[in-house]
User: Which sequence fits this backbone?
């Protein structure tokens, strides 16, 4: 599509769509579409004990960005901006992530920012880059996310609230811990322990099957890191290429035996909530016309994204608020979507959202989710893009949604089309 | 002369893109054409004269790249400006031969529309796929002002009632209105940004809010009503012609005219009747419509969207219809249309109206 005549033809042929709407409209290929030409993630490993426990967040990012350059064969000098979602690093990680980009092989001319919209930071990073491309601010960019919960998870991540914030009834709810408020929400919205455990067990089982069938192999870029073996206290060099949270033998019954973590009569426990993990993910974005000019492989396109606010104590309902909003923007409905990647922060909230949106359970997280393989906060949103696009492509399906709830009461959702 | 009192003129090898009647002479028509459907090759501006022997080419001017639109000067009866695929805007004087008297190369992509200001007659505008509208004075070597639309801009038009109000429609499904009297600011004189497809349906249960909304789609053409100063018609890829009242632009369309099978490429309000407009479409037809404003009051708070009515159809073109214009003179119904079928047709709307 490089000659002017072909560009003109592309522009004018768009006029002949006639009365195209809904799913057909988002499946159209236009030169100004923002497309994904490479996406990947590191494996996700358990916080404090997994393969990345001794690896700094910025080093994980180096790994993801390096693999992205290798895999896409993009000239790193053409990448104008990188957005990195991160939640826990002091200062948002802005300094060390810029350094990480340089280590990964990007020249000094490639800009970088870090951003924090809590658990949707990785998605926000991709959306920011997509919007900057649409607006013409940049031509090629990377949306990424990273979190080292091993090294940076803890009470320091939230600043003490001032008296002023504490004096406002809704504002002070913003700092209520995720576990406590999800427990309350599960109670209020009557999501039973049994249903949560069944949902969580199914996440484990789906992830295990997917891992055994090699369905994560395309999205995971192996990363070699230093690791202190707790048994021998020796430093070893290991290559991590598998999510270590996925394990066999988990059933609703086995989960039923675990004690609730946040309240005696509660329903939430380590087995039906997302795992604390380390990992990074990255997505290479550009206009379709640019991808075609550079001979990049187009994996899918970005269609639309939404963000929605909800009550801080009901942060778990975020996807329920954000998903209909993004449907409106794109003019599609829930039946037009083939796969939903909805982050499993807690089985309770994911289940409640999908039930209340009336989604087909078969379409939700077909390779399992954060309950089974972890939720490195800032990385998850960028991780979902890889998980979704490779699975859509494998099945020959087209339309996917990624979504998550966001701490302090928000939801985010985006629509992607695999090609 | 073709059947039904229709006049025909062929433009061999050149696919029609736009047609405009002279505002000074009732027998003169300008036609912008391009080789190879405007995809690659030269352009040609025809100046046609209607006489006892039908339509004859009085003169033509060849250009390096395709021509997509033409507008007659409102101040000089022999001058016309063209929109070219190479991003240039050229002013021709038909008393001279071969070359334009002025050419401006500022747009970075195809120029798809030119419009002459009907009130401040030393001013005209162009719009381009580069996402800008540029305002020009024929005597100045560079544009006077650039208005960003941030979106492939298929059509620009001046308000016929004001020297300083200009509008555009774009591939992002929006109608923009700029008022150059507003102070320079970050809004770049933008005073209305109207989603042609309607506002997004709301989830908070506002009844009727979803009534007007449909899918966003590329908007290709628009025109100001000549009698109702706040009324604009828009049309494009979703095949529906809509009219808007700028006094309540976000209230949704006044009227929706549905019927074309493919995208509408051009709409033009009648210079004689306030409720009549013409359309040219990729479905190879040109149609005449009443927007329903004469028969039902519009703009009432509780009024439904008026469903205008198709009152006639001209199906003699055999390819995409790209341009249409009304004759300003004489009896109220003569018009001219062009098409990729390499024909200019001049016909009387009244001859094709349904009885």
Assistant:
């Amino acid at each position: 599509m490089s000659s002017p005549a072909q560009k003109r033809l592309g522009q004018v042929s768009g006029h002949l769509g006639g009365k195209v709407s809904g799913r057909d409209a988002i499946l159209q290929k236009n030169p100004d579409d923002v497309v994904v030409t490479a996406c990947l993630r590191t494996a996700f490993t358990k916080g404090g004990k997994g393969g990345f426990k001794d690896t700094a967040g910025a080093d994980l990012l180096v790994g993801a960005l390096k693999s992205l350059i290798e895999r896409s064969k993009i000239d790193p000098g053409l990448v104008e901006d990188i957005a990195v979602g991160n939640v826990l690093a002091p200062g948002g990680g802005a300094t060390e992530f810029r350094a990480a980009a340089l280590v990964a092989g990007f020249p000094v001319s490639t800009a970088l920012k870090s951003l924090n919209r809590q658990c949707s930071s990785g998605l926000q990073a991709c959306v920011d880059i997509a919007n900057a491309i649409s607006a013409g601010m940049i031509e090629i960019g990377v949306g990424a996310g990273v979190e080292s919960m091993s090294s940076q998870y803890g009470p320091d991540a939230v600043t003490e609230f001032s008296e002023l914030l504490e004096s406002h009834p809704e504002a002070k709810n913003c700092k209520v811990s995720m576990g406590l408020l999800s427990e309350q929400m599960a109670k209020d919205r009557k999501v039973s322990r049994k249903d949560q455990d069944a949902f969580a067990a199914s996440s484990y089982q789906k992830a295990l099957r997917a891992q055994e069938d090699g369905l994560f192999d395309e999205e995971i870029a192996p990363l070699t890191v230093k690791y202190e073996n707790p048994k021998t206290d020796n430093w070893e060099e290991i290559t991590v290429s598998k999510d270590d949270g996925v394990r066999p033998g988990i059933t609703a019954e086995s989960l039923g035996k675990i004690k609730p973590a946040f309240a005696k009569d509660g329903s939430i426990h380590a087995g039906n909530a997302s795992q604390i993990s380390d990992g990074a993910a990255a997505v290479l974005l550009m206009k379709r016309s640019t991808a075609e000019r550079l001979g990049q492989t187009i994996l899918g396109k970005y269609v639309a994204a939404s963000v929605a606010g909800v009550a801080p104590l009901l942060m778990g309902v975020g996807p329920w608020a954000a998903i209909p909003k993004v449907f409106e923007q794109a003019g599609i409905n829930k039946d037009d979507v083939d796969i939903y990647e909805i982050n499993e922060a807690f089985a309770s909230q994911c289940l409640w959202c999908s039930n209340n949106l009336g989604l087909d359970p078969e379409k939700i997280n077909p390779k399992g989710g954060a309950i089974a393989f972890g939720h490195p906060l800032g990385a998850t949103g960028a991780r979902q893009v890889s998980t979704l696009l490779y699975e859509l492509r494998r099945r020959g399906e087209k339309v996917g949604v990624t979504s998550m709830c966001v701490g302090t009461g928000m939801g985010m959702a985006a629509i992607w089309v695999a090609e | 002369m073709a059947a039904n009192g229709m006049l025909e003129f062929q433009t061999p090898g050149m696919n029609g893109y736009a047609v405009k009647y002279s505002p000074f002479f009732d027998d003169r028509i300008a036609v912008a054409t391009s080789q190879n459907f405007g995809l690659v090759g030269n352009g040609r501006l025809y100046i046609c004269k209607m006489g006892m022997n039908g339509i004859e080419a009085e003169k033509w001017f060849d250009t390096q790249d395709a021509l997509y639109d033409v507008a007659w000067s409102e101040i000089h009866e022999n001058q016309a400006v063209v929109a070219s695929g190479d991003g240039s805007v050229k002013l021709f004087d038909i008393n001279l031969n071969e070359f334009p008297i002025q050419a401006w190369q500022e747009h970075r992509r195809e120029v798809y529309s030119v419009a002459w200001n009907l009130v401040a007659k030393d001013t005209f505008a162009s719009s381009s796929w580069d996402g800008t509208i540029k305002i020009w004075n024929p005597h100045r070597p560079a544009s006077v002002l650039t208005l960003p639309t941030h979106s492939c801009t298929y059509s620009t038009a001046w308000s016929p009632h004001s020297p300083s109000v200009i509008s555009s429609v774009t591939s992002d499904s929006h109608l923009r209105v700029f008022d150059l009297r507003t102070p320079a600011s970050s809004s770049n004189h933008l005073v209305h940004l109207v989603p042609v497809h309607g506002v997004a349906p709301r989830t908070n249960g506002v009844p009727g809010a979803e009534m007007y909304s449909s899918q966003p789609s590329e908007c290709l053409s628009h025109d100001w009503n000549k009698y109702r100063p706040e009324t604009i018609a828009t049309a494009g890829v979703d095949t529906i012609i809509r009219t808007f009242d700028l006094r309540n632009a976000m209230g949704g369309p006044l009227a929706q005219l549905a019927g074309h099978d493919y995208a509408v490429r051009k709409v033009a309000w009648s210079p004689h009747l306030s409720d009549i407009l013409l359309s040219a479409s990729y479905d190879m037809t040109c149609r005449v419509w009443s927007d329903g404003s004469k028969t039902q009051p519009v703009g009432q708070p509780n009024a439904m969207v008026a469903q205008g009515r198709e009152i006639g159809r001209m199906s003699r073109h055999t390819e995409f219809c790209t341009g249409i214009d009304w004759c300003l003179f004489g009896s109220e119904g003569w018009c001219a249309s062009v098409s990729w079928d390499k024909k200019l047709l001049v016909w009387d709307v009244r001859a094709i109206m349904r009885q």
Q: What stands out?
A: Residues 208 and 247 of chain A are 6 Å apart (CA to CA). The first strand of chain A starts at residue 34 and ends at 41. Chain A has a mean pLDDT of 94.
